[in-house]
Amino acid sequence: MKYVEVYIEHNTLSLNKTFTYACQQEVEVGCRVRVPFGNQELVGFVEKVTDTTTLENIKFVAEVIDSEPLLNEELLQLADYMSNHYVASKISCFKILLPPALRPQSNHEKIIYEEFVEKKDFVIPLTKRQQEIMDTLSFPMPATQFRKVAKSVAKTLIEKGVVQIVLKEKHRNLVEWAKDKEVELKPEQKMAIEKIQNGAENVYLLHGVTGSGKTEVFLQLALNVLREGKQVLFLVPEIGLTPMMIQRVSARFGQDIAIFHSRLSAQEKYDQYQLVKSNQVNIVVGTRSAVFMPFQNLGLILMDEEHDNSYKQDQMPRYHTRDIALKRAEYHRCKCVLASATPSLESYARAYKNVYKLVTLTKRINDSMPDIHVIDMRKEKARFGISQTLEQAMRNRFAKNEQVILLLNRRGYIPIVRCQDCQEVLLCPDCGIALSYHKKENACICHICGNSYPFTNTCPKCKGHSFFQTGMGTEKLEELMKMIFPEQKIVRMDQDSTRRKNAHKTLLEEFEKDGDILLGTQMITKGLDFEKVTCVGIINADAALIRQDYRSSESAYQILEQASGRSGRGNQKGEVFIQTFQPEHFVIQSVMEHNYISFFNQEMKYRHLGWYPPYSFLCSIIFSSQKIEDSLRIAQDAKQFFKDCKVLGPIEISMRNKQRRVRLLLKANSIEILEHSVQAWVDIYSKKHRNVKMDINMHPMYVEE
Ligand code: ADP
Ligand code: ZN
Fold first, then answer.
1. Which atom number of ligand 1 is nearest to the Cα of residue 184?
2. Is 0.85 topped by the overall pTM?
3. C-alpha neighbours within 13 Å on the C-beta side of residue 12
């Protein structure tokens, strides 16, 4: 008989302890078991197996689900690390390490075979066209695609025996064939690669201006690691960027790539997971969850746009992908390269102190940064939200058959609906914040909880029928652009237009093919590389500047510089138009000069003055309950408790789900002090305050309001 200690599948911190069961079957640490709990049966994770116990009246494990452990030593350690570092329940950490559909029955699948084309070794003379095909394709590749690309030449190449057809096990292939671009590395790129490859350090910050060829540096670094037979992880911040990265990686290295992001179905995730676990692929491209793939032999981690907010998970465990990447690199003794044109202040400060090795690319591939024009909206005439200067610039570009990107970081039609008679603003009853009107649905939608309310054209308060239309979102901007530029093809990209699977890819392809204007939210500012885009317009730069958060200047700088970075990446010089009411703001000034260092220095002064990261470590704790008094009372209790931290608050913040919320913000001198204090508080809280919900966010990227 064995005894197992089990974490139960229950996401509350108060149940963050193991329960002991007796087990008559074979079982190992890292397996799932089904156990009786109260009057139900729940799934749990085995944390420890022993031969004896001092406990009495022990219940039995009902079923051992896995015949071998799902989590190896490394991943079990990682769960420990996350649980401590983010003050998260252990079970939530185990769960995040696995694909959702990891069930035993999915193992028994029929194996399907597929025709593949492989290159043969012997040399026979080829025609120019045949040679070209052989040089540009990467083998092995699926026969269907080979025929599609090589067309008439395909048959001859097969008949001559230059290539041969073999049957291979088919895995649901998510990667399409793409053509590689031959490039000769620029001196700066070469230097960067050498520095990283030959460096003794493990962590590198690759700071390269937009369009400086960071991805090419990634591909070269990957090549050498793959040659050693090791695995490479490419992390991208957003799903919208996966198609482009996958395309470039697969064009270079063929199709043996696993892809991992949130839009895959449970079955697809499972397939991709298995590809890595069974060592069938050596490359993984994906968003934050890809950092948990079951690598056995990791040789390199490349994290693109390391500053991006979406690398932080926004529910328990609230991990940051960068922390996990560094942890995994440490375990596998491999290098980790963090890259960005606009690094997070934390990372740059670390590079400054030589914790990370700084590698810089100062020049664009085409050696030409776009010209930035700041448009003072206090002075300029605007039509439909677009200044005359910008409108004229767009017309000039269209005349030359070039493309334009417009950034408006607000989705929907109008952001606030206000009654003209009584001034009432339509609010979300659950969240207490203003609803946005969406024209397509003719509904008011809450951008926090997503609830939608049909627009009735009647004010709920005074029953009046007239509403103000103030401000605009991307849906309205699209409508207005159609009026100003009726001849132009417009592609809109925001959360609403990208709901369907593969929508990101389809929209980007549409724009690349024959689009004139790509307009959208911050989604379109990241990573996109279209050589015909020569003009970028930022419709409302102030939206980014006026937020109250400690990180708002940093985010504003990042979004403005990244958006600017989409312009003029090809042969034509680019330009950028920033519409703002505060042209003298230091963020705008730094963007104008493409001067990250100047931005960094000034922002670090503010952070120092306010004792914010990277000078301190933060934790936000939000208490929520139906009654504001309950939330406030426990927040006051907590405040008394934290003697070693500076505590801001409690303050009341917006509701969620009709729950009244109160926030505390802790600041501490060291991570250890912060973790220790918060853990200690959780112990007290779990004993006393079950009726008030507590949400802990260690190292928050922004502070909720
Ligand atoms: P970044 O990620 O730094 O913004 P990319 O890696 O996307 O830049 O590179 C910008 C463009 O320049 C891409 O289209 C890429 O194919 C091209 N490129 C990269 N390196 C070179 C090179 N050495 N010579 C020519 N073109 C290059
Ligand atoms: Zn809401």
1. 23
2. yes
3. 12
